[in-house]
Amino acid sequence: MKNVVFWKNPGYKGHPTLKKDISCDVLIVGGGVTGVSLAYFLAKAHKNVVLVERDTIASGATGKAAGSVVLKGELDIKQIMDIYGEKKGRQYWSANHEGLELLKHTITKEHIKCDYEPEDTIYGSAYRRTDLAVFEEYAVEQEIEHATQLLRGKELKKEINTPLFKYAILSKHHGISVNPLACTQNLSVAAKRRGAHIFEHTPMLNIKGNVAKTPSGTITFKHIVMAIDTSIKSSAIRKICSTILVTRPLTHRELASIGMVPKKIVWDSKDIYHYFKLTKDNRILLGYGDKVVEKHHKGIKLHKPHFVRTVAFLKKLFPQIKPRVEYAWTASFGSTANKLPYIKQTGHTTVVGGAASQVVCVMTARHIADLLLHKKSKLDLFFSK
Fold it and tell me: DSSP letter at 2?
């Protein structure tokens, strides 16, 4: 087994390092999915935008993620309704759908190569006689989306053949599977084609007034957006440690035996960070972990308790096959207590982080872009302080 990240993007040529003094309307610090999406949206609107990344694009949490871009990544529909009430909850759920569709549209329109596959999702109940959470979620979701199905027995085994689930919800058009590294890096190339100026290996040394200093040049800006997630010094953003493993490719017989044809993205109702999918080349990618840590998890050193639990979950999930684990890594990402992004604006500075779900990251980028373009944002109701 290799303690390395599975994702690669061999066709990516990267961006230059800043080596001169420049100016812009908007400076974005941070090359994760939120920062790159924001650069793309602003460049499309013909804004003079600069993005700087201290390492390479998507070298942080984004490029180490699972690439399961789903509507229920953080909050279930029932949780949303409990927080906001039915009317406002429906609006937020609709905004989630729009965020996912926006990303799907961008990937196809810009011809972004990232192993893109639209997939349905399964919200499963780990082995229990009954699970009120699944039934309650189904009742709320089916009221909004009539294509949603409650699976059990033969219907369930047809979609996912596991002894671990007794009940599950099949949700249509709720997710996409991508290579998150390639998706974000290649989106940055699309943003550059649209006119964004992007610089890698360009750390921010300090900011005085409206001038940012880097090792080899300064950037004079009108507005600055700090999209640096767990590096933000705020108690509102919790640093979450999570582990992912990837198996060898499954054979056609193994795929048939686990009932994952067509492919689905699967979540356990008991542990929202117990999830799995099949990669483009038919490997099982399975993740676990929501341990809050005090410090940023540097590198990808395995969190052994997470790894042991994840391997055990895989064996219980599909006892009929024995795929060896070929890749495994642990990384951290930012999240807030209410699963909504942390957005703070002071003067010409906007700080953003903790979105966790990549759908919400895209929604957040669209929201900030609208605000900077002086447009009305549909997400004001949820994201504005």
Answer: B
